[in-house]
Amino acid sequence: MNNLTNLALISQMIDSAEKSIQSAKQLLREVMGGKIDTGSDIAKKAQVLSVSEGGKIIEGVFDGQNMVGPDGKQYPVPANYASKSKLVEGDVLKLTIAEDGSFIYKQIGPVERRKVLGILTQDEKGEYKVVGEGQSYRVLLASLTYFKAEPGDEVTVVLPKDKEATWGAVENVIKKDSASFGADSEQPKKRSEEAELEEL
Asked: What is the DSSP string of 103-131?
């Protein structure tokens, strides 16, 4: 074999090994109920962030559901805000705690993103996941409710580009009963739904 053939074979073997490792990690995460060291990256990233004005302004990292602060505490992020903003794991947020106790979040450090098209499933516990590229991603129920998504629908999820994720942010849903988007079918409806989401 010549060097080019060998390089092509090596490249294919590496790709195959990486996919096998990703699938194994995903299975391990599911067996352990999502408790694997993926959160430790978020905790480490959060440790270098700041808390100021007597704890009234806190920077933290979004973990898919909550914001993890520099002290390791979790702060609840409203599902509607996370869905509307399409927050993904690793995004840096700033939380301002107002005098009346309300939480005001602002995204200040979005991570690079990628998109995956997958199929929405529901497991025996009732949890929804999008399965795509050989992995499954948890998604916020608020997003699925907004898009009126059902198991079997195709769902586009937004993920962090350079890290494995447990959670994905729903960007779009293609209903399983719509064959395609046409000028007079689902596309106008999707546009109006996006416009409504922007207004929230």
From this structure: EEEEEEEPPPEEEEEEEEEE-TTS-EEEE
Distances, alpha carbon 103 to alpha carbons 30, 55, 127, 128, in Å: 32, 12, 27, 27
Q: Which residues pair with 145 in a beta bridge?
A: none
- Name 195's Cβ contacts closer than 8 Å, sequence gap at least 6: none
| Matching residue, tokens 């608020």 | 142
d(CA 95, CA 110): 15
pLDDT tens per residue, range 103-162: 999 999 999 999 999 999 998 888 999 999 999 999 999 999 999 999 999 999 999 998
Closest CA to 59 of 81, 37, 75, 40: 75
Report residue 56: phi and psi, to 5°.
-85, -20
Tally Cβ neighbours within 10 Å of residue 34: 14
Strand order of the sheet with strand 154-160?
135-138, 128-132, 113-122, 154-160, 169-174
